[in-house]
Write a structure and sequence with these properties.
The complex is a heterodimer of chains A (316) and B (169).
Chain A (H helix, E strand, L loop, with lengths): L4 E4 L3 H9 L4 E4 L5 H6 L7 E4 L8 E3 L5 E4 L4 H6 L1 H6 L1 H8 L4 H6 L2 H5 L6 H4 L41 H7 L3 E5 L5 E5 L22 E7 L6 E7 L10 E7 L5 E6 L9 H4 L6 H8 L11 H18 L1
Parallel strand pairs in A: 1-3, 2-3
Antiparallel strand pairs in A: 4-5, 5-8, 6-7, 6-8, 9-10, 10-11
Helix pairs in contact in A: 5-9, 11-12
Chain B lengths: L1 E7 L2 E7 L5 H8 L18 E4 L2 E4 L12 E3 L1 H4 L7 H8 L9 H16 L18 H7 L10 H12 L4
Parallel strand pairs in B: 1-5
Antiparallel strand pairs in B: 1-2, 3-4, 3-5
Helix pairs in contact in B: 3-6
The chains are: A alpha+beta (316), B alpha+beta (169).
The structure holds flavin-adenine dinucleotide (FAD), iron/sulfur cluster and FE2/S2 (inorganic) cluster (2 copies).
Pfam families (chain A): FAD_binding_5 (PF00941)
Keywords (chain A): FAD, Flavoprotein
InterPro entries (chain A): CO_DH_flav_C (IPR005107), CO_DH_flav_C_dom_sf (IPR036683), Diverse_Substr_Oxidored (IPR051312), FAD-bd_PCMH (IPR016166), FAD-bd_PCMH-like_sf (IPR036318), FAD-bd_PCMH_sub1 (IPR016167), FAD-bd_PCMH_sub2 (IPR016169), Mopterin_DH_FAD-bd (IPR002346)
């Protein structure tokens, strides 16, 4: 690990301005992704700003009947919150499908959204990777691509976003609240937080330099049956090959977001109009324009079948 | 370099450390509490599991300096060979290990798992999110999945934990 200086901050403004005064600084929350990457020198911040003292650790009612989740609320706390379990079961289920008990005790809401890809070539510093080292090429393209994206990818990068929680947040239409170094705040719809790779796969979100996430807000509950189905190589403690997060209403309408297929949580609102017609119709719209490799083309039928299982389960 | 003062197994300890030192390395290399093991050093095996402020975490993926003023319990703090913690005794009784390398992490994790179930925290396999979780074998195995045992002592580990929880395996 490269050496770094360390500072604990106690206000959001202090955090943002500390980040502004050092372009090579990083926020650290749970540390479960950042430290992993720092050990491999994939991340090499010269300064760490510990945000754990900011007190963004509450889940509070939001004015419009939703819930405002502090950026530092731990994944375990969020999944176990009685209001989340009752009204946003999809979020509890997605969180509980991710990582391990130990990791969820540390992982935070903001850190989870901002975790980086699990592309094995990104992790292998002997390989070219446009995300890790812009302009060096992409070792995954032409390599082993079973885990990689099937849609929304580019000639520069075919990585996926690994978060389970983000799939639920996308289906629930969450918004992300931030503060910038100049003190200004903004609301970012979750759909606009993560970017597709394009020519700049190293730029993964629309956050600007030093922008701090303070909370994530869920709109008021939409009811329905909440299901998160994750398909992976072992039954627990493994990242998704594909995952389907769905909210299904009694009349068969609803929402679907899919993980493991793209550089961001994948949701196509137009595809949801097909829900009453079944999984095949939804999957066709949702994955229109997909460009899988030979090795990961199975993900297209896996999404359709997983969605089929979810819709059947929703009928009870 | 940075300074750190925290409580380890009930004793206040002060250290001067490189900021890069993980909690795991602080415990093993600086405090010579070598019960906590380093397996993968990347959050993938659970050998480094310790209990901080009542919650189990992977000590390899957290910086020691982030734990100023906090209270850490390691396997050495749970019990001693003369006065074993009930979970330690149950692992011995049920042969919940072979080489023993994963065992301190398994035991710290297991102690915390029983507390998590008591606190009503659901898991991936909990059927009804709105009901209190039950301590079934499936629940135990899911909740312990963050602790890998390369010797494959899982069945005996599950039996040991079940005994401490007060239910037949
Ligand atoms: C073995 C293993 C298995 C895993 N399995 C899964 C899985 O199955 N599913 C899954 O979804 N995840 C999984 N994870 C990933 C885990 O969920 C993430 O590591 C965790 O959610 C990151 O949260 P954190 O708080 O620890 O983030 P950190 O590591 O602290 O930070 C991550 C990033 O977010 C930035 N950041 C943190 N907080 C803020 C903030 N408030 N504002 C702006 N930037 C911020 C940091 O600068 C950093 O760039 C796994 C991890 C491991 C190690
Ligand atoms: S797919 Fe993206 S992350 Fe993986 S090697 Fe290519 S550029 Fe890097
Ligand atoms: S050593 Fe920490 S999880 Fe493996
Ligand atoms: S007893 Fe050997 S690794 Fe578990």
């Amino acid at each position: 690990m490269k050496s770094f200086t360390y500072e604990k901050v106690n206000s959001a403004e202090a955090a943002a301005s500390a980040a502004a005064s050092n372009s090579n600084a990083k926020f650290i929350a749970g540390g479960t992704n950042l430290l992993d990457l720092m050990k491999l020198e994939i991340e090499t911040p010269s300064h760490l700003i510990d945000v754990n003292g900011l007190g963004f650790d509450k889940i509070e009612p939001a004015p419009d009947g939703g819930l405002r989740i502090g950026a530092l609320v731990r994944n375990t706390t969020l999944a176990a919150d009685a209001r989340i379990r009752r009204d946003y079961g999809l979020l509890s289920r997605a969180l509980l499908a991710g990582a391990s008990g130990q990791l969820r005790n540390k992982a935070t809401t903001a850190g989870n959204l901002l975790q980086r890809t699990r592309c094995p070539y990104f992790y292998d510093t002997n390989q070219p990777c446009n995300k890790r080292s812009p302009g060096s090429g992409c070792a995954a393209i032409g390599g082993v691509t079973r885990q990689h994206a099937v849609i929304g990818a580019s000639d520069a990068c075919i990585a996926t976003h690994p978060s389970d929680m983000a799939i639920a947040m996308r289906a629930l239409d969450a918004t992300v609240q931030t503060v910038r170094p100049d003190g200004s705040t903004r609301d970012i719809p979750i759909a606009d937080l993560h970017r597709l790779p394009g020519d700049t796969p190293h730029i993964e979100t629309t956050l600007t330099s030093g922008e701090l996430i303070t909370s994530v807000t869920l709109p008021k509950p939409v009811g329905g049956t909440h299901i998160y189905r994750k398909v992976r190589d072992r039954a627990s403690y493994a990242f998704a090959l594909v995952s389907v997060g769905a909210i299904v209403q009694r009349d068969g309408t609803g929402r679907v977001a899919v993980g493991g297929v793209a550089h961001k949580p994948w949701r196509v609102e137009a595809a949801e109009a097909e829900m009453p017609r079944g999984a095949k119709a939804v999957a066709a719209r949702l994955l229109e324009g997909a460009r899988p490799t030979k090795e990961n083309a199975f993900k297209l039928s896996l999404v359709e079948r997983t969605l089929g299982a979810v819709l059947t389960e929703a009928k009870g | 370099m940075a300074t750190l003062s925290f409580s380890v197994n009930g004793e206040v300890r002060a250290l001067k450390l490189d900021t890069r030192t993980t909690l795991l390395d602080a415990l093993r290399e600086h405090l010579h509490l070598t019960g906590t093991k380093k397996g993968c050093d990347h959050g993938q095996c659970g050998a480094c599991t310790v209990i901080v402020g009542g919650q189990r975490i992977n000590s390899c993926l957290t910086l020691a300096v982030m734990h100023e003023g906090e209270s850490v319990t390691t396997i050495e703090g749970l019990g001693t060979p003369e006065h074993m913690h009930p979970m330690q005794a149950a692992f011995v009784r049920h042969d919940g290990f072979q080489c023993g390398y994963c065992t301190p992490g398994q035991i710290c994790s297991a102690v915390a798992v029983l507390d998590e179930i008591k606190a009503g925290i659901p898991s991936h396999v909990t059927g009804d999110l709105n009901a209190a979780p039950h301590l079934t074998n499936t629940e135990l195995r899911e909740r312990m999945s963050g602790n890998i045992c390369r010797c494959g002592a899982y069945s005996n580990i599950a039996e040991a934990i079940t005994e401490v929880a007060g239910r037949p395996a």
